[in-house]
Amino acid sequence: MNKIRLAKYIADAGVCSRRQASRFIDQQRVRVNGALANHIDHVDSNDDIEVNGQQVVPSNEKHYYAIFKPIGVDCKLIPSDPNSLIHLLPEAMRLFPIGRLDKDSHGLLLLTNDGALCHQLNHPDFEKEKEYIVTTSKPITDEFCQQMMAGVSVKGEITRRCLVEQLNETQFRIVLTQGLNRQIRRMTKYCGNYVTDLKRVRIAKLTLAELNLEPGKYCSISRSQIIS
Fold it and tell me: I need a surface site. Which of 96, 155, 185, 200 has the fewest CB within 10 A?
């Protein structure tokens, strides 16, 4: 096995996403052969790698789940938090979420131990779509939709062009190919409105409707249901 970047190795082992692995490295919570890890470290299965004090054991079998995340559930997998998503997941299975939803949002969430798929769905260069239905506190205008589509400033970054379609006076559909933190809420606020409900209904080609899930319930899916 050729040595690969540490964050990719951790993600491929099913511990967490590459982004979270990078955060763990920054926080000095990763060790390679007993020494604190660096982002430039390249490793393979012959190296002893620990994340948060737990040895990383690569998982060859990949698992894929879809869950209808309810409002009030936090996507951080913290066992001590009664509102954590971890309490809704299959026991004794190491999974991590793809494309988190904030605590006040609901809808489709994917969970896997497939780091490569997570990277493909989360990194904007792959342009994998995520679709949302959004309800606002004030009426939506054509100007609002055009401004949202063209891109606005979110934490110093201009959002990518996206699809926005008005559904009724206070509801619109938006399709994104990037996932900045609380992006839709911040975009909506920038354009002079406020989100009162945010529901994700599609990730890539998988829709929430086809799964027929109740809030808080999950089901096993295949990789091919998500991407071709």
Answer: 155
**Within 13 Å and on the Cβ side, how many CA atoms surround 169?**
3
* Active site positions, annotated: 102
- 34-73 b/e (C-beta count within 10 Å ≥ 16 → b): eeebeeebebeeeeebebeeeebeebeeebbbbbbbbeeb
Q: Which residues contact 51 (CB under 8 A, 6 or more apart)?
A: 10, 15, 16, 21, 24, 29, 30
142 and 179 share one domain: yes
| Predicted confidence (pLDDT) at residue 1 exceeds the cutoff of 70 | no
Q: Are residues 69 and 103 in the same domain?
A: yes
Is there a single domain that holds both residue 46 and residue 101? Answer: no
Tokens of 29: 């919570």
Q: What is the mean pLDDT of residues 107-118?
A: 89
CB 56 within 8 A of CB 44: no
